[in-house]
Amino acid sequence: MAAGSAIVTTVRRGTRYTEANRALAARTAKELGIPNVLRGNDSIEELRKTYNVDAVLVARQGLLTLVTTEGELFFHPGMAHLRMKNLLLGHGDHLVRALGLTEGMHVLDCTLGIGADAIVESFAVGASGSVTALESNALIAAVIADGLAHAIGDNYDMHAAMRRIVVHHADALTFLRAAADKGYDVIYFDPMFRRPLHESAGMNALRVLADMRALTEETIAEARRVARCRVVMKERRGSAEFARLGFDTIMGGKYSRIAYGVMEL
Fold it and tell me: Does 228 fall in a domain?
């Protein structure tokens, strides 16, 4: 679903209608090149039919919510808070271990999604490191980037980690082709599973918008050129994608349904 098949609006006029929401709607419309529609008292469904669009971005309480026929997508850090707490307590994190993250490293996360993994990565590499996150869908990128930049974190560490993430609306292969050799320490892929592990309104909204294409050998080859240390891919445990793309080291929780394929460079 392209940005052109969407509009942006605000909540209905009332107690939650603020100038901040109006300004956010106007800014988002300009950045995405989509219509900024006055809400009035119309329902989202009425707006969708009137403007013949599949999705509606709503400026609500100073943040963006993407409403589709499958559900609503809005920024939420998910399990990032608990995962950061585990790291602080010395319990570790499967993704951080697979990526081999330490203070000061530079990460390219090629599949931003809802942003929880990027937050944990940012926390792990600290202020001296960096996380660059790519999202191929403009609408998802707008919602999650806005949340990372403006939502209030559960604590200072999360707040700081969120703010350090740099989001680009970009296709991973296109971005990698233009990147310099050894430009990042590690590169991470989390392609959308064909069959979801969990059902929720937010994930359903994400899935209807997400790029469902499998990773290509060319994408992995470019990632190997651009990464200094590791290329990592998240997939279902036992997935044939690991062997197809050349990931011969598998890491992750013993009883987890997901695993991480790791290429040491």
Answer: yes
Tell me the pLDDT tens digit for each residue of 111-135: 999 999 999 999 999 999 999 999 9
Identify the three-state secondary structure at position 48.
helix
Residues 6+ apart with CB under 8 A from 171: 134, 136, 211
Q: Which domain holds residue 188?
A: 79-197+205-264
In three-state secondary structure terms, 131 is: strand
| 178 in Cβ contact with 93 (< 8 Å) | no
Kindly state the tokens that stand for 129.
């490191």
What dihedral do alpha carbons 139, 144, 149, 153 form, nearest 10°?
160
Q: What CATH number is attached to the domain comprising 148?
A: 3.40.50.150
Residues 139 and 64: their CA atoms lie apart, in Å, by 10
75 in helix, strand or coil?
A: coil
10 within some domain: yes
Query: Measured between alpha carbons, how far is 18 from 26 in angstroms, rounded to an integer?
Result: 13
Domain membership of residue 137 (yes or no) is: yes
Does position 39 have pLDDT exceeding 90, yes or no? no
Do residue 170 and residue 245 come from a single domain?
yes
The strands making up 130-135's β-sheet, listed across from edge to edge, are 165-169, 130-135, 106-109, 184-189, 227-236, 258-264, 249-251
| 138 pLDDT above the threshold of 90 | yes
E strand or H helix at 215: none
**Count of domains for the chain:** 2
| Residue partners of 262: CB distance under 8 A and separation at least 6 | 98, 230, 231, 232, 247, 249, 250, 251
93 in the same domain as 19:
no
114-123, 203-212, 215-224, range with the lowest pLDDT? 203-212
